[in-house]
Amino acid sequence: MNAKATGPTRGPKPTPLKSARRPDLRLPPLEPYTAQELDPDGDYDGLEFRETDLSRQDGAGARFMDCALTDCVLDETRLRHARILDSALTGPRGVGTDLAEATLRDVELTDARLGGTQLHGAVLERVLVRGGKIDYLNLRTARLRDVVFESCLLVEPDFGGARLDRVRFVDCTLKGADLTAATLKDVDLREAASLDIARGVDRLAGAVISPTQLLDLAPVLAGAMGIRVEG
Question: d(Cα 84, Cα 147) in Å, to the nearest integer?
């Protein structure tokens, strides 16, 4: 009996990429914020912070619900463990803002000018970061789900040990990103304007990149795999 001829074996089809969900933010009419200082564990609901200098104030553990922060100064503002929900932050600027282990859900962050922002251990869900520049963003061990970075510049962002699930980079420039020990799932990097990974390129499993990006990353990938490339 002759064996039946078979064609080449094909591997399983890749699972379709799941898209990140953007926040659907609809703020109610807001009251102006008139207090002088933030309170730790304070409750801020339906307030507008406009051109407010919150430098070095302590709002650790505070809850911001349906709030708008516009052109506020956040130099060394302490917001550790804070919860920022259904809120818009437009034009914030500052260095050393402490949002470690905070929760950001259904938040739009627009045209930020921030440096050394601490978001390690934080939870970000349905967050849009659009425009602006953020230097040395610390997202170590953070959890990002349904997060979109759009038309922004991220200089040396640290995703070490973080979990990224349904995260998308659109026209976004990443310089010197650190993915050490990060876990990626449904991460779309194809539309990034520039993709520069300083460490952790071996953690890109779970991400989708473009053919051009693959060529750009080839030297880093070869180095991570111990491959020598010689002419």
Answer: 15
